[in-house]
Design brief:
The complex is a heterodimer of chains A (536) and B (316). Chain A has 3 domains: 203 residues, no CATH class; 150 residues, Rossmann fold (3-Layer(aba) Sandwich), CATH 3.40.50.1860; 136 residues. Helix content of chain A is 44%, strand content 5%. Chain A has 24 helices and 8 strands. A 4-stranded parallel beta sheet of chain A has the order 2-1-3-4. A 4-stranded parallel beta sheet of chain A has the order 6-5-7-8. The chains are: A mainly alpha (536), B mainly alpha (316). The interface between A and B is large, with 95 and 88 residues.
Chain lengths: 536, 316
């Protein structure tokens, strides 16, 4: 059955769903998932969820906005949206992104060059609602009608029709969370219009004015981090305990005596991990300890509030929360008097603290930040640790985290390491700055409410699944263990869930993990077998 | 009288065009400094732009000189501007429509330059013709070749773009009435111009004569070729188009400079005590009014106040 056409103005027309997601529409996958029935189905939303939350965009829910009880509540929310819309275009409220936003608002030629660059649009079978330009065009028309020209005589002739009502607002809130903010679309725009930025700014409007954001990002994310120190809920006593256990495990596994230094004043390096590593992938911070200690670096971790958790979810939805967390990170480094902050394997933390916070941290908070990819490459290329690549004699491919690669230009250090330590390394296609997002970007990796998990694996993660299967297409036999190196916590979270969803480990022995685990696995001073070949 | 009015009209159009460009450019340039939002590859990254690398690949990058390559920028900008390299790479079917349109317009901009030279030559007593010496003859031939090439390519591109927007559903759904107007306007202006030259001014001598009148403010020599009614229509429509384009989203022909240099390629780090730090310091004094409870902007608290206070404290 042919999918119905959906026009820009349809977003304002009340209906149960603006679009429906049908598995038969989705882009085909390679072997062994070429038939739609060979992949799991999308669970429908529960009646309770549909009754309680706004869900009229598509067949899933990311934000969980409670349905207004009556027309008055709807009108109040629309008025609030409108006030946020106006504020978004003032320098007092949005100096942080005003210039890029205005340029993206005013100059789109609707040439659709961006569409084919978007993995979500492609994977959904080119669902018109997921076209990167769809969200932008709706928002552009709202801005032009209600902020820029205030509905002047020629406004709809010049800018197109749009109605502002609660249906539009509720759908737009959800639609802002159908984009990974990977900015692959922006890379292809001949004019420089940035649909990823527009999605980011819509998220900000909802959060900063209306207090609407996914619970996983706000309450359980940045708010919790600022309250107890980490979005994992670990306070400093718990994180130190956990790291002590990790040190013990790693010492036993490697045969080296590892003790993580804490709060060492005057150390050269403050290493900040995504604390999710400590909880979910403890061998990752453990491996950092092995490498840094073996290389004889002067380093420390910090037990200050947020000083041991590099995540900064504000990057995806809220400038104030973003800046608060970035300042906490810098304050932790300042207190210890370190020469630089080295960010562990977390892409968004890299970009948040190194690039985006660069124009937030001034004076003595402007402490140099460096990627661990660079630090690790220097350790390996200088020969400070000895490696035996034969220990990594299995197929390896590399996933490029968007934040680290496309948005920071850190492309080669990790590759130079892999070429040295992984003899069977092969690239995905495309890769580097043209990579595809894992599907977990912009917070999706930690969002699994309702049936959103299905959406992010069926649609957002579909392209990455295809790339991984293609990279290993001649070695899918489960007797061959394969490794996807993903040097980013959020990407690993997405890959963990994606691999489980499609049963990649059980059926094809495809495992994922970070870069440092691969390094330690081939260190000659370490007992063999650091990588534990089991799904985790 | 007609010539005087026409000359005034053309000058007014040029003034509107230049003023609109200047106004927009100043407006964009004077917006506050924004947070970094670069996107790789960044063309000026010396030795790294080919694969999209940045200076952040260097250990202790802040202590090392940053190497920026203007040649690297030119290597990207020239094919991007002249050949629409990005559209060729990412949207090939659209390139076959968009490229003739754009290259046609570029050639017509060049034609204006040639006509200005020709007009000045007439004004100073050296009119271009088939026997006006090597340079004069060359410019004479180049003018009508450029004219016909620009008009034909521009017309073909405009027609192709209009057809796509009318008949391709993906495009039609995003096309505003003003977009159709813009394309029809181009079609009309270019079509009338082509007709004027085919019918009444085949070697562009009359148009060159008009430019002589323009540069002399109507005091050109009496032997300057007169304008036909079609040529007058050509000039009126072209003048209107010149004034109109910078007032629309088609101003991307120069705002693109900002999207590339100020955003996509703006990787300038904030170094202690530098200009960026100073500018950011001023921005941090702004007083937001965002009303969500975790910000509670009251128009008195600055961004520094908001971001150095804790959510919990605020809620308490």
């Amino acid at each position: 059955m042919k999918r119905k056409r959906i026009k820009v103005g349809d977003i304002s027309k009340p209906s149960p769903k603006l679009t429906e997601l049908r598995k038969e529409d989705f882009a085909p996958l390679p072997t062994p998932f070429e038939r739609p029935e060979s992949t799991p189905g999308m669970a429908p939303l529960s009646d309770k969820a549909e009754a309680q939350y706004e869900s009229s965009l598509d067949d899933t829910i990311a934000v969980s906005i409670p349905k207004p009880k009556n027309k008055d509540e709807e009108d109040a929310l629309v008025a609030k949206f409108l006030s946020g819309l106006e504020k978004l275009f003032t320098k007092e409220n949005n100096w942080t992104f005003l210039q890029p936003l205005l340029l993206s608002m005013d100059h789109c030629a609707t040439c659709h060059t961006c569409s084919d660059a978007c993995h979500i649009y492609e994977s959904s079978g080119k669902n018109p609602v997921y076209r990167p330009g769809y969200r932008s065009e709706v928002f552009r028309r709202l801005y032009k009608k209600y902020v820029k020209s205030k509905g002047g005589l020629l406004q709809s002739w010049r800018d197109g029709e749009i109605e502002l009502n609660w249906t539009t607002v509720a759908r737009l809130a959800e639609l802002a969370y159908r984009c990974n903010l990977c900015r692959r679309c922006a890379q292809t725009c001949p004019i420089g219009v940035d649909n990823g930025l527009i999605a980011h700014e819509i998220r900000k409007l909802f959060s900063q004015e209306m207090g609407i954001a996914p619970k996983e990002l706000h309450e359980n994310g940045s708010v919790l981090q600022l309250k107890v120190g980490s979005s994992t809920g670990m306070n400093k006593a718990v994180v130190k305990d956990n790291m002590e256990f990790i040190d013990e495990d790693v010492s036993e596994l490697t045969g080296l005596q590892i003790e993580t230094p804490w709060d060492k004043v005057g150390a050269d390096i403050l290493l900040i991990h995504n604390a999710g590593e400590i909880m979910a992938w403890p061998m990752n911070p453990g491996a950092f300890g092995v490498i840094f200690e073996s290389a004889g670096l002067s380093w420390t971790m910090s037990s200050e509030l947020a000083g041991y958790d590099s995540i900064n979810y504000g990057l995806w939805y809220d400038d104030a929360q973003f800046a608060r967390v970035a300042i906490k990170h810098a304050e932790a480094a300042k207190k210890l008097g370190v020469k630089k902050i080295v960010l562990g394997e977390c892409g968004h933390a890299h970009k948040a603290l190194t690039v985006i916070a660069d124009r937030v941290l001034t004076g003595d908070l402007n402490i140099p930040r460096e990627s661990c990819m660079v630090t690790l490459e220097q350790i390996i290329s200088s020969g400070r640790i000895k490696v035996d690549p034969d220990r990594n004699d299995f197929p390896v491919t590399l996933h490029d985290p968007c934040n680290l690669v496309r948005l920071m230009g850190i492309v080669e250090p990790q590759r130079r390491i892999l070429r040295k330590i992984a003899p069977r390394f092969r690239e995905m296609h495309p890769h580097g700055v043209q990579n595809y997002c894992c599907g977990g970007g912009s917070g999706f990796a930690i969002m699994s409410g309702h049936n959103f998990n299905d959406w992010r694996h069926q649609i957002a993660g579909r392209k990455k699944l295809e790339q991984i299967l293609e990279a290993f297409k001649d070695e899918l036999d489960p007797s061959i263990k394969k490794y996807v190196c993903a040097p980013c916590s959020n990407c690993k979270g997405q890959l963990r869930d994606l691999f489980t969803y499609y049963d990649l480990w059980e059926k094809h022995s495809i495992l994922y993990d970070g870069l440092v685990e691969l390094i330690v696995n081939c260190m000659t001073d370490v007992k063999p077998g650091f990588i534990e070949w089991e799904m985790h | 009288m007609v010539y005087s009015m026409l000359i005034m009209f053309s000058y007014a159009a040029a003034i509107v065009c230049l003023s609109a460009i200047l106004w927009r450019a100043v407006k964009i340039a004077s917006l506050p400094i924004h947070l970094r939002w670069e996107l790789y590859p960044v063309a000026h990254e010396k030795g790294r732009s080919s694969y999209g690398g940045s200076y952040l690949e260097e250990s202790d990058w802040w202590a090392k000189p940053r190497e920026s390559s203007f040649i690297g920028e030119l290597k990207v900008m020239i094919p991007e501007i002249l050949l629409l390299a990005g559209v060729w790479e990412h949207n090939r079917s659209h390139w076959f429509r968009s490229f003739p349109f754009h290259i046609g317009l570029y050639i017509l901009v060049g034609l204006v330059g040639l006509l200005l030279i020709g007009g000045i030559a007439i004004a100073i007593g050296f009119p271009l013709s088939v026997d006006a010496g090597l340079v004069g003859t060359l410019l004479y031939h180049l003018t009508y070749v450029a004219g016909y090439a620009g008009l034909v390519l521009g017309l073909l591109g405009t027609a192709a773009l209009l057809i796509r927007r009318l008949f391709n559903q993906d495009y039609r759904e995003y096309t505003k009435k003003s977009d159709y107007f813009n394309l029809v306007f181009f079609l009309l202006a270019l079509g009338v111009a082509l007709l004027a030259h085919l019918v009444a001014d085949p070697d562009f001598a009359a148009l060159r004569g008009y430019f002589a009148r323009l540069v002399t403010l109507g005091l050109a020599p009496a032997e300057v070729a007169p304008l036909s009614a079609l040529s007058v229509a050509e000039i009126v429509l072209a003048s209107m188009l010149v004034a109109y384009v910078p007032l629309t989203h088609m101003s991307h022909f120069f705002t693109k400079w900002f999207t590339y240099h100020d955003i996509r390629w703006n990787d300038e780090p904030n170094l202690a005590g530098g200009k960026i730090e100073h500018r950011v310091g001023n921005m941090l004094k702004y007083t937001p009014t965002w009303s969500a409870s975790h910000i509670s902007g009251d128009g008195k608290k600055t961004w520094v106040d908001v971001t150095t206070s804790n959510v919990e404290e605020d809620e308490e």
